């Protein structure tokens, strides 16, 4: 796992809170997935409907696992206030009642793009690399200490800006997606800000030794790699389409799903 590959000296004096915070912030500033070629093409309006639909289908796999990894993190806390705060994250995605929450909003995004919710829910078209990236994140949160699992969520420091860029890009370049479908992204701007503003002081307070601080920075790097690898996988499927010259649209609403993406799990 990449966290093990990151050298940890752990021998130095701990960084002061300001330096540590700056080092944490520098991670997504340098390697967040907003720079990934697939996202760059999305923002430039260069994606075909088939490519955008493939992204929506595959990103749903990430979305539906966020409350799972948050439940694993919650189980590590021995403090009621912390558990309450983390429970809210789960509710942000699952809703408090049926028909609410981020997962429901993502399903509506799919519908706004012409993808039936049953196709998202089936998971049939999730690419192998996307499965591995998401498993990697969930298992990281399962196995690593709370400090590192919470530090990994700090990619959200960069997410609100990306959400704004994405909303602008969708409105400008992909008007065939019904406007109501963008509610997921609009809601996440505030939630991402609040989540990262809450998590950052926890990480700064919990990491008392240099080794813990370095582990937190490594966790955040690992999470950036998860997001990057996820897009690599989607991008490779896109490249395979172009190579085959098909440009097959896998996502149009209909009772019969299109053929699976190249490399998709059958
Ligand atoms: O669309 C994106 O680019 C993006 C990125 C991230 C992120 O940075 O991890 C999250 C989300 N979206 C998101 O919607 C979301 O709910 C979320 C939760 C978390 C997390 O690690 O706890 N990251 C993200």
Write a brief caption for the model.
The protein is mostly helical and 266 residues long.
Structure description:
The protein is mainly α and 266 residues long. It has one domain: Heme oxygenase-like (Heme Oxygenase, Chain A, Up-down Bundle). 68% of the residues lie in helices and 0% in strands. The chain has twelve helices and no strands. The protein has helices at 2-5, 17-31, 37-44, 49-74, 80-94, 102-112, 117-122, 128-143, 146-152, 159-173, 183-206, 210-244. Helix 6 (102-112) packs antiparallel against helix 11 (183-206) and helix 10 packs antiparallel against helix 11. The protein is globular, with a radius of gyration of 19 Å. It starts with a helix and ends in a 22-residue tail after the last helix. The site of pyrroloquinoline quinone has 9 residues, from helix 10. Residues 66, 102, 153, 155-156, 159, 162, 188, 227 line the site of pyrroloquinoline quinone.
Give the secondary structure arrangement, pairings included.
Layout lengths: L1 H4 L11 H15 L5 H8 L4 H26 L5 H15 L7 H11 L4 H6 L5 H16 L2 H7 L6 H15 L9 H24 L3 H35 L22
Helix pairs in contact: 2-12, 4-5, 4-6, 4-8, 4-12, 6-11, 8-12, 9-11, 9-12, 10-11
The chain binds pyrroloquinoline quinone.
Function: Ring cyclization and eight-electron oxidation of 3a-(2-amino-2-carboxyethyl)-4,5-dioxo-4,5,6,7,8,9-hexahydroquinoline-7,9-dicarboxylic-acid to PQQ.
Keywords: Oxidoreductase, PQQ biosynthesis
Pathway: Cofactor biosynthesis; pyrroloquinoline quinone biosynthesis; Cofactor biosynthesis; thiamine diphosphate biosynthesis
